[in-house]
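It would be a great kindness if you could assist me with a short task in structural biology. A protein sequence and the structure tokens that stand for its backbone fold form the material at issue. I should value your view on which stretches of the chain appear to form regular backbone elements. The record follows directly beneath this note.
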Amino acid sequence: MSTPQYSPLHGLPALAGLTTFAEAQKSGLSVGECVRRLKRYHYAFKRLHEIFLARLAAEPIYELKMAFSLHAHYCAEHVAALRQRVGEMREPPLGLDAVPDECLAIFFDEILAAPTTEELLAGIYDKAVPALIGALERHQRETNPLADQPSVRVMKFALLELREMAEYGAKAGAEIKARSAQISTSWLALLDDSIAAARGLDGTGASVSKALTRRYSGTPFTYDRRPRRDARFADPYNMGVNAEAFIYDASQPPEPKVLMMFYKRLREIDVPETMASIITETKGKPWGYYRDMTRQLWDEARHAMMGEAGFVSLGVDWTKVMVNFTWSLGLNTQLSAKERHGVLYFIEQGLMPKTGKRFEWETAQAANHALSALFQDYDWADEVLHARVGRDWYVSQFESPKEAVEWGDRAWSKVLVGWRQWRDEGLTEHRNWWPDIYLDYCRAQNLTPDENVLAFATTYETQRADLQTLAGSA
């Protein structure tokens, strides 16, 4: 007997354009099997998020810090989406904190503990990300596209960003490997064996008996919160120029303030270094905490890159600017994670009044510099979001916002900034690099130097008092 043919009205796409009738009739994955796989994807994204942040501060290469910030943000978002999807599928309690397979745990533990940047990149981008891409693509092929459309949608967006991560990793890995020592082939084989023993990342592979011996993770991973910078950051202890003092000096013209604001943006590289330490060392929070905090971390990395792009737009070599790491160094090595968060919130309060982010945006407009005005506009918007994140996850621990600000101020008072000590130890002369950079800017822009701008010299020692005044008025 022939099967009757069905045609949608007026030839319109059937099934909302999702799929064909033939595909909609295939058996696909059961709810139970779908959930089992989703939990493994969730575990993989969560471990990658952990790895990116745990390795960010101590990774000296600036470009990798920025990429780790972005990729951690992607992972945090996909963890959240997978948690929501599992919760929709008859699965209380969700059991999302359970390790789905001990062999997978070994796989990610080994990547986390990789002793070199070369091996870290190989583990993430040559092994983990491709394995996760393959698992999601298999799920899309094998599930029913109509019945399981919400899962397919989650994976569609995840794959977009995973492929972007893989492309970045391929380029970065090739460059790093070309300039460095060989990666241990036996260690890469251990990663392959771990995935094989787990029956693939999604647990659908053939059963394989593998004797796994931990190598780098045989000793538990020790988190290194001390920030490091690559050779382009020639004088990271240098605190010889106070950007805020120049920007808020009414006697200075707005045009060179654009240059100083680009420096201030680039200097935000230390915020991801500190936030990574806060997130890594804060355990047991709802996933919303990690998602929001990682979003803020990524925003701060974006701000640093806005500064980088700004210097390029002006024809000025940013590596001649002394971008210090003293803020993240002091906080990461002298305060607890909660205290670091308190200092972060205290400083953010100084950015909210009219003398904060609005003033920087207005300054860029007064200078008639479109790119700086655009960057400051978005920087301002981001900081409003970050204030909300602070209220949700930091202020909520206190009786009042006032108490939260005061606690953060006291925490910062505990940081022993070695301004004189670093100079006396010969780590830096706190050289005033501003005149050289300003002259480079004038040459690149074909401008006549302003003697008042050229003569600017105010050290970092006054900055904390400036920020206390701003925070007090918030």
